Amino acid sequence: MQAAGVRRACAPGVLVALVAGGLAGWPQSPTQGGAPTAPSSVQSAAPPAATTGPAANSAAANPAPNEQLPASQTPAQPSSPAATPSTQPAAGGKLHGFVKSGNIPLPGVTVTAQNTLTGKRYSTTTDITGAWQLNIPQNGRYVIRTQFAAFAQGDQEAVLNATSHDQLVNFQLILASRQAEQEQKAAQAEARQSAQGQDLQQLAGNAPETVGLMNSLSADTDTGAGTVGASGAALPSIAQNSDFSDESVSITGQAGQVSAIAGLDMDRVRDAADSIRVQGGLTGQGPQGADSAVAGQGGLFGGFGGGGFGGAFGGGGFGGGGGFGGPGGGGGGGGFGGRGGGGGGGGRGNFRGFNPAQPHGAVFWDGSNSAINALPFSLQGQQQQQPANGSNRFGLTFMTAPYIPHFTKPSGKDTMFLTLSGTRSSTPDDFYAIVPTDAERAGNFSAAGLSPIFDPTTSQQFTYNGTPNVILPLRITSQAKALLGYYPEPNLPAGNALNNNYHLLTTGQSNTTQAGVRYMRSLGANATQPGGRGGMGGFGRRGGSQNQGLRQSINLNYNWAHSALDRVNIFPQLGGKSASDSDSVQAGYTVGYHRLTSISNVSWNRSNAHVINFFTNTSIDPAAAGGITVPNNVALNYGVPSISLSNIQGLSDTQPSFSISQTISVSEVLSWIHGKHNMRYGFDYRRIHRDFLAGGNATGSFTFTGLFTQQIEMTPNGPQPVHGTGSSLADFLLGLPQATSLNSSVAKSYLRDNVYDAYAMDDWRVLPSLTLNYGVRWEFFAPYTEKNGRLAEVLTNPDQGFTSETEVASGASGLPDSLVYPWHKAFAPRVGLAWRVPKVKSTVVRAGFGMNYTVGEYAGFATTMAHQPPFTNEQTNEEAVGNTPSTACIQTATCFTLANGFPAPATVGNYALNPHYGLPYVMAWNLDIQKSLPLGIVMNLGYNGARSNHLDVKLAPRALPNSIGTDPSALVFNYDEAEAFYKMNAATVRVNKRVEHGVSLGANYQYSHAIDDATSVNGSGGSVVQDWQDLAAEAGNSVLDRRHQVTGTYHFELPFGPDKHWVTTGVGAHILEGFSVSGSFDFATGAWLTPTYTFNTTNVECGTAGSLRLNRTPGASITAGGGTLHQWFNTAAYTEPSPTQGFCNGFGNAPRNSIEGPGTISSNMALSKTMQLGETRSMEFRATISNVFNTVQYNGVSTSEGTPQFGEITSVGQMRAIQFMARFRF
């Protein structure tokens, strides 16, 4: 098995140091639950398949000088199938060996073999064990050279002929500076060896036993940088910012996962990172500010920066300070390691043999077109033609050493990167709904199946011309007629499979453009050449020894991005558009002296975004034109008022908004390597500005429930509505809403915030087989304030049952300006260990514990409080019905109406918050046992756990008066409190087959269970609790719970071409070489859904619209007869609570999230071909197929009783789609 894939003079790529520097050192994204990963300490870099099979046999039988055989590697037995040498061609043969410096393997070294007669070249790169292999298709004499930044070039010769088809060529490299010094002094061989050994120890920065441990452990475990599985959130190691972290026993990343790139073709690895850099949007940049709760990802150019631990709850991670696009957690808490993404040492990282006078870069395009995709699945059973849509993405990356021709020369001290990327795409949107029929628009509800409606002025059933259930035409208001004009006509036949009568299949356009420039310069006499610390902003490794004296570098970045997209609405007239422009600037300075390194960064980010509908800032005011009075109705707020109806699709126009977000951040990281300790200290400061103009509901909204057209009967308890009577659409035609709301900005808001953090961390190699990784982080998140003191809330008394309500504003006595007391105790300890079990072959144990805070709620608090009176025209009006007939306000002419639903601005708002709101946090822990098995298989058994406290709960404490008509003193507000929890436990089994003979396989199984009682977890949810006096009833399956999940990947390199087994010469070899097939699959059980009933008078009156749950039918199975398109679950298992249970004191007993939704069935595949076009040029073509088997993936399920679709599938996933990509690298 070849070490990294043979190619002719492949251009040394950007990502070689992903292997050389340890991909696992890069903070990983957390998985569900956010369990931390131990420091993966024991060098978990198992040798790729080169250590088994023919290549391994040769290497094992003939170890290099001073080579220590890994503990898990024994000479292969002749009878072993894996040891059977592959058949070699009649001509040519195999060149292989190891590249080391002393006893330390050097991964990522470019090895080139050139035929001295024909000049033809073949090249590869060494794997993590320093092994390399070239399959040469023809005989001849070959000059073999190595290229590795900061090391002297190695040169040897080998001959392949009829009697010699297998040549072992080992290299011992020394630092280029040391070689020059040796040559100058003409030292003796013994002196050279001594100096070489000294340099190696300096380069590693660890005790000799730690350096030597690499050889003995490298075969046992892998770096764990594979696919993000169930191992939880990474617990990043300080070693990620050290210069030789991957050669120590501390390797970070997902616990024990096999490296996804070990032994793979490095050209493909570099290409993957190119895609991340170009497609991911210019190094982690993005709109900053309060509401984004940025997790601080540094991006490729921004360095390691970003959040490691955390994530699942909005928090950042150990990476604090992120690239110029993300100040380490923005609102999310930053991270432990806080590099600031600065990049560091000014080298060009991983361009081995880089020629500063020669530009390097890549150009790519990828796209898709609906004409070659499968048709979308039709829920109605009748296939419809898909509207034309597709996507086009393009990008350019360019790197060069800047110079002025004829005046200056390229310098290894200067590097400039230019990037440009963009997308032009259209995406299909498929909508189904129920809209009013022509008869219903005319007030005729006499059709079969419709509820009887009653005249609120007479309490008698409506009758017109002798036909019951028909509203007199004169009673239909002009306002209702105007709004009906925004409803399209039904376009589906009545009585269809899903009971919908309207279908819209359309597309939305989306455009993005991004550009960036980065300049790096190394300063001083000790400026590192290519390969300096930080390299391309974080991927490179130190280009010289740690005792090289003073090291300095600077880096400057500028990035710009623009995006624009359509806001598609089910009713086209109510759509809109949004756009944003972002700018970011970063400056970094790195200075190092011996084993001490300081990285300082300053960054500025600014984003300007707006959202508009088709009426914003025009001369058309649809509300006024329809006779609807909406206060503060300036051109900015023009739009169609929102209408909410039960059983009928409502109207919801795009809400206009304008915002500017700005973040200024400063970060400092100090790294010190001392003996077996690798320590890091740092701090970050961020100043966040968020300015916005808009309310959450500027166009106003009206809620119709059927309150006024239901039948009222007298009971011993007084007048009661008759269940099954009334119509929300009939109420709408009469212009009688049960509730109205408005939130319209009077002036611009200016939110301000300060965020501080400091941390200390130590990566301690206690023993050759044991590493501890421990530290603590303190964060201070000052709650947002408003520059002009324009924050307000309702101050109430929850301990006394919410019996008082007072509106308070910033500066109120006894409260801070933010109206929320800051949390000063955000200390987050973290610890991890990795232990290679003695006397138990190839076994590594990892464990970790971490804690993280999140401040995502702070942004929501501040935005809501800025939208409270007297600074915003806020109104929440509800008919105070209680046990009073709905006709009461009709008789007194005090009802809210569609024409006049907003009588006067409120003096007391609709939002209350506990001033001592506790900061949410998550604790996560994990245990992972890794065992290396024969045939290059690695198995991991793991456990992950997480517990989060102080999660958000939204209450709607309503005290319903028995007064007649509208009661202005009956305040209506929601209350935020930090009382909820989340907990998760998961067991995982992972099996990975390392790359061997071009084949790699991996699979992961996870069983997990998570419960919570929170209003919102990880951004999911958000509705108020059903009963604010019984929070224990909210506990149930979490929205994040996925009980079973199986995922896997595969990769096959086709065995054709000069370096393969078949068709090794001729035109056929060139045509067939470079092909590979890869893919992934994901099978999982579904998310959990809550059975509710459609909003009605009780929902609105209790303030719990969408939260009231159904009753469970005793003895009825939830799954009986379910699992189909038209009945996903047994609807007979649920019933609506009886109205006799009263308003707001009787609730359904069905648990939250008690219906299991559709599972996941996903399989994707890709076919790619890479062609070498010269020493530094290559071309790749790739076709990627999503949902390759065209499987119908059910998505949405209607769980709201009372709707015609109750229990049915309402949406499906995308069918098979094909995307093409072409990339030229030079």
TrEMBL record:
Q: Tell me which GO cellular component terms the UniProt record holds.
A: cell outer membrane
Is Metal-binding one of the keywords?
no
Q: Which UniProt keywords apply?
A: Cell outer membrane, Membrane
- Is the keyword Membrane in the record? yes
Q: Which InterPro entries match?
A: Beta-barrel_TonB_sf, CarboxyPept-like_regulatory, Oar-like_b-barrel
Residue span(s) of domain TonB-dependent transporter Oar-like beta-barrel? 360-1219
Biased-composition ranges, Low complexity, are: 35-91
Region annotation (Disordered) ranges: 28-99
Origin superkingdom: Bacteria
Location(s), subcellular = Cell outer membrane
- Its recorded name reads TonB-dependent transporter Oar-like beta-barrel domain-containing protein
